[in-house]
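Notes to self after the call with IL:
- keep both proteins in one doc
- input above output, always
- annotate only the second one for now

Protein 1:
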Amino acid sequence: MDLMTAATPASRRVLLAAPRGYCAGVDRAVITVEKALEQYGAPVYVRKQIVHNKYVVQTLEKKGAIFVDETDEVPENAIVIFSAHGVAPVVHEEAAERRLASIDATCPLVTKVHKEAVRFANEDYDILLIGHEGHEEVVGTMGEAPERMHLVDGPADAANVTVRDESKVVWLSQTTLSVDETMETVDALKDRFPQLVSPPSDDICYATQNRQVAVKQIAADADLVIVVGSRNSSNSIRLVEVALQSGASASYLVDFADECEDGWLDGVTTVGVTSGASVPEILVEGVLDWLAARGYADVEVVRSAEESIQFSLPKELRRDLRAEAAAGESAKR
């Protein structure tokens, strides 16, 4: 008997993490692009990927969204949407210079970190931003106060930081990091700077934390954890890392079900499944169907938290939608 058949169909099961998938900030950003296309017609330009998910970007492209890397690629007087990850003030200035109608789809939780950066810079603090170099969110946040910000990319990087006044140092963080690794970095920074100030509230977003807690729960009982998400998605990559740290023998990141490999299931009785915060549920359903076709049809939802947070659409879009609704009402009279 080979290892694959050693796990009888009756014993094979799937632990499905909850919460998983779309967070409120991602939902808001995707709806923003959809509503803008309905309101203004195609094309609508989007600076960077609206969220870090291949399927979402491809779907919006088919509807008429055009994704660009930089603002100067957008034709003058066109509409540009800024992604959920946020942008530096200079990007807003560039858009204004090109007379672009900009819609800011930055996640409100990222905006909160931007405002904290501005406030602490105005109070003359050195700001230690914990995050990954080159990530769009980090680039945007650093741009709020470049002369006061120092990027700290993990615990080992704490040794490289120099500040002007050790009594005026504060830490902030990228919202999509591993909670555990972030606190390791904070501890390393506190060893160097005992008077280090913490932000008023934890910068790691609620959805990132909830998905990490959920994957810890299923990983403890799973032989394999499949994380649905794109490779440029920081929070999805962290889910794979957390799964391995929490007891899973193996964990893989896939965009689509056809990326899963039969060999992963050798000797596996329990498969955990979750998805990153920018992943639509249809992609998770595809992985569940793939597993069911291989004898893993028993799915148990493991819920660790309830989420009810919703964010309103960007003010620029709300204003135009209200104006259109008012015009429609006036026409009826």
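Protein 2 (the one to annotate):
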Amino acid sequence: MSDPLDALEKSISTLRRAIRDASAAGDTERAGELRAQLRRAERAWDALLDADEPAPAPPRPTPEAAPAARGAQLPAREHVHRALMLLGTPAAPKLIVGVHEAFFPGELSASKLSSLRRDEERSYRSSPGARPYYLPPALAHDLLTPVRALVTISTWTLEQRIIGPHSPRVDFLTGAIRIAEAVHTAAQSAGSGPSPEALRLLWRFAVNIPDAMPKSASGHDSALDPEQVIEAAQAELDVHADADRAARAEASRRARKSLSDDQQLFGAPPQGVTHLRARA
């Protein structure tokens, strides 16, 4: 399974390289924004590390019960954060819940995400930067308004949090690859292998990707080959990735010029749409 801490460490390394490149190019505005993202990513890393430390347990717990108990004690936003870090893409509440059920202990319902999204913006506006990360909505590439059906993480780059014309398919394929990698890792581990929920989740991705299903598939989750899913998803991803990256980069440039720091997280207000179009 993809470790959220590992994913954050990769993001931190990527941000540090990008800061060096921006500084070398004399782009101080870009370097400053990247430094702010780096600070948020580092705070998120610290928070995840603290969350993974064993909490005080009841007398004589069983080894199997301890991880599940710790997972159950985490707040809903931590569950959401872990699921999103595994996916690596903006996601709808239903998918977030599905990823959580497939790979993590504890309970998470879609209803909790509705109030959570409102709480995240309220918390940020009352005390910006007080939390190591926030869970803002994705941003539409054209109007830079919030796409409230999709949840992201504030420590991700602005490009990663923007949804362009090709982004839904690109994010779907990226998520399929990450889920297949997690299933493959679980299958190779010394434990009991991937959960039935993980196999069903991978199946739902695979049936919508050309050549991802085995020709002899009989409708059972166990017939899936994670490596075949990865190969098929990557082949299609290569077709769309460049166009999607360009659209997101262009929207990100407009957002940095037009939006305040909080709007870059939570989107432009509806009354600002006409103004943003004019400036674009």
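Annotation: Residues 53-71, 272-278 have pLDDT under 50 and may be disordered. Residues 93 and 114 are 8 Å apart (CA to CA).
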